[in-house]
Design goal:
Length: 488
């Protein structure tokens, strides 16, 4: 009798084990089905990438034709004289783009010499960020005046001439001239209503007057245009600049006769730098998944910045989180219960997915550590970790290939996508900056290889150049190239 009971118990255990094995097997089939659907949705053939590049070029033409002709703003920057490497002298830069601002001083001695620089970073108190216009700009100028007092040997401007400054103001602005622009709206925690609609350079100049500061604001720029200037200072064949960081944008050099909406006197060199604001690009060819659609609908700006939401550092980690959350809810990727941290929007940042994506340990230990540290998901299996890496790869590969298609669209607009018969071979340099490009190796490598495939034989002339700190040195270089007082 005991033997019969024992045999029955063994049989029961065997059935339970078999059911668990079957359940586990079905789970992984379901997981792989969801991942395959994601991969199919996000895949981008060369034909599809060319269609996206063509759409980008069409939107560029439309944005250059009229102010409201396209999702791409194609903003006229009034920068028509980029540095050439011969600029010399002392120039200042002020970089206001968030809760901290930087004041910088640069000594230029020509591109054959190293640029010498000094800088200080200042944190803006919360009460100043929501105070009055006078309080904000007086706080900035007080720090600027204090910094000027520290001018060392060799960093003095020409006697009797005002110091010259490039002002990087990373908030939405309607540019009126090289050195003027009206604030459209505040972002990043600032809320000083009386400044909205006002010329921010004029507000800065008034504060300088109150402090008796003898300084001339030569140029109001954004970081993308600054990156272009930094690149052009070192390489005369830089044609465009791209920011791939928390956000994304592009700027390039356009011929003035290709800008129908330009109303002024044409610049002597016939060129104008255009700030594309390409993050707002949208096209029916963009491969949007259900995760992208939900992210967009729940964002602060639904229907806007679609391209940026697919490729920039702010959103890549969040898209991966949404995919993993779906896998957890629908097919129990992380067990019977959905980890609470996984439900929190933006709890998984792009630096974390980069660390997991680049994990080369045999057991994907880094992936396991990040899941536990950030999302409080312990004891993940190797199979689960592989799925996480696969999701990272699908989302980041799509983003990198879309960025390549955007750059290819700019090159098509400039006629630099093919080498025409009889043309002299010339380098085409793209200056790129941003933490995503600099620190996410798989993103950078995929973008560059995709762009070279799109270009074909012309890729031999393409150079992708890292051009860092456009918001600092770039602003000073634009001040130098448009200087009223310093000789080039």
């Amino acid at each position: 009798m005991a033997a019969v009971v024992c045999t029955a118990a063994v049989c029961t255990l065997s059935v339970v084990a078999a059911r668990r094995l079957l359940t586990s097997s079905r789970k992984w089939v379901s997981v792989e089905t969801v991942v395959k659907e994601l991969e199919d949705t996000c895949s981008l053939s060369m034909e599809k990438l060319r269609q996206i590049a063509d759409a980008m070029t069409v939107e560029m033409h439309a944005g250059l034709a009229s102010e409201d002709g396209s999702k791409l703003k194609m903003l006229i920057t009034y920068v028509n004289n980029l540095p050439n490497g011969d600029e010399k002298g002392v120039f200042y830069a002020l970089d206001l783009g968030g809760t901290n601002f930087r004041v910088m001083r640069f000594l230029l001695s020509g591109k054959q010499s190293k640029i010498e620089q000094q800088s200080v970073e200042v944190s803006i108190p919360r009460e100043v960020m929501v105070g009055t216009s006078e309080e904000l700009f007086d706080f900035i100028v007080a720090a600027l005046a204090k910094f000027i007092e520290t001018e060392g040997e060799g960093f003095h401007s020409l006697p009797g001439k005002p110091r010259e400054l490039g002002f990087t103001f990373s908030f939405p602005v309607k540019q009126l001239s090289l050195s003027s622009g009206k604030l459209i709206r505040w972002t990043k925690g600032f809320h000083i209503q009386e400044v909205v609609g006002q010329d921010v350079v004029e507000q800065l100049a008034k504060a300088m007057d109150r402090f008796g500061l003898h300084m001339h604001v030569v140029a109001l720029v954004n970081d993308t245009v600054g990156t272009l200037a930094k690149g052009r200072y070192s390489h005369s064949d830089v044609v465009a600049a791209v920011i791939l960081g928390t956000g994304t944008n592009a700027a390039y050099v356009e011929q003035i006769n290709a800008i129908p909406k330009w109303q002024g006197v044409p610049p002597e060199n016939g060129e104008m730098v255009i700030n594309m604001e390409w993050g707002n690009f949208s096209s029916s060819h963009l491969p949007l998944s259900q995760y992208d659609q939900s992210l967009d609908s729940e964002s602060l700006n639904p229907g806007e910045q679609i391209y940026e939401k697919l490729i920039s550092g702010m959103y890549l980690g969040e898209i991966v989180r949404r995919v993993l959350c779906h896998l957890s809810e629908e097919v129990s990727l992380f067990g019977d219960h959905v980890p609470s941290k996984l439900r929190v929007p933006f709890s998984l940042g792009t630096p974390a997915i980069s660390a997991m994506h680049h994990d080369t340990t045999p057991d994907l230990k880094v992936v396991g550590t990040k899941l536990e540290e950030i999302l409080e998901i312990p004891d993940t299996s190797f199979k689960t970790r592989k799925i996480v890496v696969e999701v990272c790869d699908i989302i980041v590969t799509r983003g990198a290939r879309l960025a390549a298609a955007g750059i290819f669209g700019i090159l098509k607009k400039l006629g630099k996508d093919t080498l025409k018969a009889g043309d002299k071979q010339q380098r085409t340099v793209i200056a790129v900056d941003g933490g995503l490009f600099e620190h996410y190796g798989k993103f950078r490598d995929c973008m560059e290889s995709t762009l070279k495939t799109l270009l074909g034989p012309e890729s031999e002339n393409l150079v992708i150049e890292h051009s860092n700190d456009g918001s600092g040195i770039g602003a000073a270089l634009i001040a130098a190239s448009h200087s009223k007082y310093q000789a080039s």
